[in-house]
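dumping this here before i forget
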Amino acid sequence: MATIIAGVGSSHVPAIGAALDNGKTGEPYWKRVFSGFEKSKEWMAKTKPDVAIVVYNDHASAFSVDVIPTFALGCAAEFPPADEGWGPRPVPVIKGHPELAAHIAQSVILDEFDLTIVNKMEVDHGLTVPLNLLFGQPRDAWPCPVIPLAVNVVMYPPPTGHRCYMLGKAIRKAVESYREDLRVVIFGTGGLSHQISGPRAGLINSKWDKAFLDNLSKNPKKLTRIPHVEYMREAGAEGIEMVMWLIMRGALDDNVQEVYRFYTVPASNTAVGHIILENRGRAGRKHSAAAKGKQAPRRKASHRLAA
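structure:
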């Protein structure tokens, strides 16, 4: 059967994409951001997932205020980069996995989650920036198929954290009932604290962000009880994007192995947060196979890079 082996949380700041596209990653301002993802790219290169499910929010590229789905699952064979006002990003077209996506849609809808099935969709920086940060900058094709899951966190009302967490559990159930043997990594993207307009523009709440990352690893159910107004007050208007990380977390084991974390401020006018969580069962299988009756080599539970 297919298995979700790990989850990745990552900010999707559009200016990160611009820095990548314009060759500015080595400049002092950006170097500290991109250096924080070097270990992550190494991890992803070793992990080699067969499919990535990327939870993100559309920024008025695929959906306008005329049609606002709460959850939209991309079931197409491919998803071209969107033109966000300055031309499509110079990244490969995202290849989908229509068979697994259709299976997820059927399973999740029959579990009473009302997904919008999307068979034609362009994807913006919300999806392509996290792919760059974890997979690098491939010239011709991304290393694996990608299933986009767009979540409305732009127009009120967005889904609650609890609803997102439970959707993650339903997605896990769907993936594990798929008969092909696939290794799946799920991304939760967006955030962390930031506000791009109004009197509090530029707001960053590092204490809130770091507590969110702590609880994402150790006590995710506490995060599911955070109301919308608290996200807005503590993390800024756009901080509500953090509920998308709970879809990723809900798709994992209750107890996970935190293998890496990175946090820095600012990047543009936002905090950049990142975390990699592995299901403990996966880590245990790897160690058992390596040990062959001997004590497995010890590994650090968490590598944190301060900025």
